[in-house]
Amino acid sequence: MPGADKETDLTERIEAFLADLKRGGSGTGPLRGSGEMARETTYLLRRITAQARWSSAGDLMEIIRNEGRRMTAAQPSETTVGNMVRRVLKIIREEYARSRGSSEETEQQESLHKLLTAGELSEENFRQHFVHLKANVIEAINELLTELDGTTDNIAMQALEHIHSNEVIMTVGRSRTVEAFLKDAARKRKFHVIVAECAPFCQGHEMATGLSKVGIETTVIADAAIFAVMSRVNKVIIGTQTVLANGGLRAVNGTHSVALAARHHSTPLIICAPMFKLSPQVFTTIFYPFPGSFSYCLPVLREILSKVNVHCPVFDYVPPELITLFISNIGGNAPSYIYRLMSELYHPEDHKL
Amino acid sequence: QEEKRLVEYFRTQVRQDPEVPSAVAAIRTLLEFLKRDQSETILGLRENLTQTIRRLEEADSSVAVSSGGELFLRFISLTSLEHPDLSQCKKVMVERGELFLKKISLSRSKVAKLCHTFIKDGAKILTHSSSRVVLKVLESAAADKKRFTVYVTESQPDSAGRQMADKLQNLNIPVTVVLDAAVGYIMEKVDLVIVGAEGVVESGGIINKIGTYQLAVCSKAHNKPFYVVAESFKFVRLYPLNQQDVPERFKYKADTLKAVEDLAEEHPMIDYTPPSLITLIFTDLGVLTPSAVSDELIKLYL
Fold this sequence. Notes:
The structure holds two protein chains of two kinds.
Chain A: H1 2-24, H2 34-51, H3 57-74, H4 79-100, H5 104-107, H6 112-117, H7 133-157, H8 159-162, E1 168-172, H9 176-186, E2 192-196, H10 203-213, E3 217-221, H11 226-230, E4 235-238, E5 242-243, E6 249-252, H12 255-264, E7 269-272, H13 294-297, E8 315-318, E9 325-328, E10 331-333, H14 338-345
Parallel strand pairs in A: 1-2, 1-4, 2-3, 4-7, 7-9
Antiparallel strand pairs in A: 5-6, 6-8, 9-10
Chain B: H1 2-16, H2 22-36, H3 42-59, H4 63-82, H5 86-105, H6 107-115, E1 123-128, H7 132-143, E2 148-153, H8 160-170, E3 175-178, H9 183-186, E4 192-195, E5 199-200, E6 206-209, H10 212-221, E7 226-229, H11 248-251, H12 254-259, E8 270-273, E9 280-283, E10 286-288, H13 290-301
Parallel strand pairs in B: 1-2, 1-4, 2-3, 4-7, 7-9
Antiparallel strand pairs in B: 5-6, 6-8, 9-10
């Protein structure tokens, strides 16, 4: 029966995705990079919208919320999965409101204004059925996918405004976004790049190879030399894993030290981060380490290995006061403005899936 | 004497339920006034309302009453724009007023729900003077089976900190009272600072019991997070740039303002903490950075 086949096909795909997520945590899975993760999640959510059985927006939101919860539980350190789920939930709310004919602005956020003027304690339960809701939601998700495809290009387009000739730029480790950013500027400007290698995985080496292939003068330095070299640097441009709700960052280990060194020398710190990395979480003290790779990163003598506790945190928190500018696919913004961008992307009820 | 009766009503409200925030008591009184008022026009209504608010401010000079009054005035203006006919307008206003009161009575619990996740197991918290919102936050954290210790500043001249300590002891939370002067001494032991606010100003700063500014400067110097918990009806349209900019009528108790000639001899009861020292503000509208506060105010007043 075609109906049952579709359902099993859907569940199979969801299980396959969850398995990929779990493996992806150790850096060896097929999904590399948050951009791909975001795209895969959105494809899957579109498939769920198209194939799962639902009759009203409320049902669809429940299904997506449940799947979202399972996906974030599979790999808690990948926040882009949760972000995409929240984006899709907001899309569903907007399309529902549009179908009902009410203007989207008034229904959205809690505000003092809304407290004063609301008529009744409106319990929006999304139970009404609309014929074209499915098509509208799928179209909106397609728009989201086009936006995701264009993020790196949109960010790279802004490179010429920020990088000038004969500047010395510092970057840390490897970020696909920053690589595209620098490559785009290199087409018209000549500048130097200093790459911190970012032990223990030393992804800075790959970054340096990539940049020098395009003809950019690149220097690789050890992490310990960051402060020493900082006085010669004009700008620090880095990527990040997540942008938190208060404007802070969750970035690769060592970024906080770079930020402090930059603050000490009054060097601007610019973050290139696409919008799908913006997460409604606020700083908590729990960051997830990579499992399993400890024995590779630190060459500890085998004899004392059992007597030594090796901690290898993967992520760092950078507070918003140390950051100068966020460059995203929608333009440049100050860290104090992040809360506003977040209120446009996600609905406050979806902050906790 | 109608006004005297309303001031009495306000005082009874506060006496009957000491947990109720003074802004809510003020709004309840103003709603009562609305029901009893006899004016024929909306302009007359507004004038009488402004008079009543002034009387209430003379009875209790805190920032919260002032912000509650301004909110109510704004509420009237917004409603009267939609319904120009007075009698229908009044009906809608009374309805919405009751609804508003119902919503804001839940705001303290909303704030507590947001904030208690920031208190980790084993945390040492420093707080200032006695704030019912902070009490509620600590109550929900304790109910969540978290273990933490609290330091409370004594907060002279009224020793409000000791009352806070008693209330916390009743909740079985280990608490220590410290001198106001010992804030710098204790700051290195502390993990985070949580204070309430009497008013949240447009810049994102707060107006709170005297000693809060000191606490904020100290916590900034030691790099400790400084959290403020406040309900949204405490947002007030002031923009002080320094301590002197805070209006005199908030700085001193109502009786002092009436009795004393030369205010320069009196000790102020509140101070202003600028937004640069505040990490996050927890309100019933969500977790806000100080820069988000003016956004909320603009949405309402403009």
